[in-house]
Structure formats: structure tokens, C-alpha cells
Amino acid sequence: MERKYTQGLIIDGITYNIPLISIKRTLDFLENFAERTEDGDTHIETIGLYKNYRISIGTIEDPELYDALIEHITDCENRFHHVTLPDASKQFDFCGYFSSIQDEVEMVLETGAQYKGLSWRMTSKKPYKTP
Asked: What pLDDT, on the 0 to 100 scale, is given for residue 8?
């Protein structure tokens, strides 16, 4: 089977052909409670396991594409988004919200600023696994 490299992200059904630098994933347990009893044993009630991500993007030289992506990921009215992400053997449909969005000016041109280092956190709305 031939495997084909693809780049970019699909957010809410819109494909952004952008240079991905990294997709970092954390697998976080969320607990209803965790406590240690007097005998030293730990008791945990787990709500679930969440797949959360940090996306880092390279320089996008097309200012219209950059502005469209920024507008999309900073939408205040639609806080939850569906993102198609690569998983080890398939695609994973992430549903969650974006936060900690940041970038920096790489250079100032006559037509405006060119940004680099765009990144954001994606926090899952629901658990990937539950007990």
C-alpha cells in the first residue's frame, strides 16, 4: 500500500493548505476525584481520557489565507470546532475549542505584516475514552 503525504488542516469542513510544523498530542485523564486514604492507598474516580493537541504552523505567505484562518480559529460565536487530524493508522475527528492562540510578526511589508509561529491549543469537548 502506497502512503501519501498530505499537509494542512481541515477545520469545520474547510481545508487550509498550510505548512504544519507540529501536531503535539497529550492524553489527559480527567478525574472526578482522587484521594489518598490513611493506609496510603489512592482512590480515583475517572471521568475519562481526553486527547488534547497543540498545533504549530509555519509561515503562511498568502495574507488572505492567513487572515481567513485567524478569523476562523478566533470565532467568538462558534467556540467548538471539528478538526480532522492524523492518527497512527487513520484520521481522527477532533471536537473541541481553541485557546492560547499566538503568533509573531516576522516582517513588516508595505502591504501589512507577515506573521510566523502561529500556534494554538485544542482542548477536547468530550472524552476519547470513558471507564
From this structure: 82
Cα 18 versus chain centre, distance:
14
Domain ranges of the chain: 9-124
Range list of β-strands (E), the chain: 9-11, 14-16, 20-36, 42-57, 80-86, 91-109, 112-124
Dmax (CA) of the chain: 69
CA–CA dist 115, 3 (Å, integer): 32
The architecture in CATH of the region 9-124 reads Beta Barrel (2.40)
Per-10-residue mean pLDDT of the chain, 131 residues long, equals 66 93 95 91 94 95 96 97 86 94 95 94 97 94
